[in-house]
Amino acid sequence: MLKKVEGIVIRTVDYGETNKILTLFTRETGKVGVMARGAKKPKSRLSAVSQLFVYGQYLYQHTSGLGGLNQGEIIDSFRSIRNDLFLTSYAAYAAELVDKLTEERKPNPYLFEMLYQVLHALDEEKDPEVVVFIFELKMLRVAGITPQLDRCANCGLPEGKFHFSINEGGLLCHRCLSVDPYHLPMTKRTAELLHLFAHIDLGRLGNISLKEETKKEIRHILNLYFDAYSGLYLKSKRFLDQLDKFKLE
């Protein structure tokens, strides 16, 4: 049976001399794998639509196993991302997060739209670190490991001077710091931004300018939280961390 979907290429694997196996994250059917025969040939009609991050309409043979891609039409190729190593790295991280945290053929139109918004924001050259912070916090919800960011995770106090506790899974107020001797100090600005980023619509993201110290603080907290609760090891994330270190040198 032929199936037409709107999808984004989130992973590609070479298969033989001329073929590719694509992982598409689609609006209609979630994550699906398809074989793009001959896609590695420069003159193939499937070559352009089989590139990583391409957003397009795809027609494929729907089977119980790996489908066969019949044709595709590009809606957006996100050219700016392709021409910048740093943007490519951030996009690759977002795509791998979606790949690792979703099951085959489980539709999630909200997540599809969110991934599109991430790629669109990166392509428009919005601050890539801010874009990824927002996406990471929303993906924590997808993974079912959302931190408590609007009140103290221990006593429920909604306002005050907060630190962050990996062990308690969120904010700790000044009265509850003894609950976790390894709590992470953070500024009021960082606490406010974590809450904002968890709820903001990426499609409405303007130009947010953050100090490097604030970015470093948010990155440190999110890295530790992901490592503690997600159980994921992402190659794209390690490469991104290396690039960030290189950028600071």
**Based on CA inertia axes, which overall geometry fits?**
elongated
Percentage of residues assigned to helices: 25-40%
Largest beta-sheet characterization? 5 strands, mixed, barrel
Q: Order of helices and strands, N to C? A: EEEEEHHHHEEHHH
Major beta sheet, strand line-up:
1-2-3-5-4
Mean pLDDT: 94
Strand proportion, as a percent range, falls in: 15-25%
Query: What structural category characterises the helix and strand content?
Result: alpha+beta
The Cα radius of gyration reads 20 Å
Unreliable parts: none
Count of runs of 4 or more consecutive helical residues:
7
The tally of strands reads 7
Question: How far apart are the first and last residues' alpha carbons, in Å?
Answer: 54 Å
Labels describing this entry:
single chain; 249 residues; alpha+beta; two-stranded antiparallel ribbon
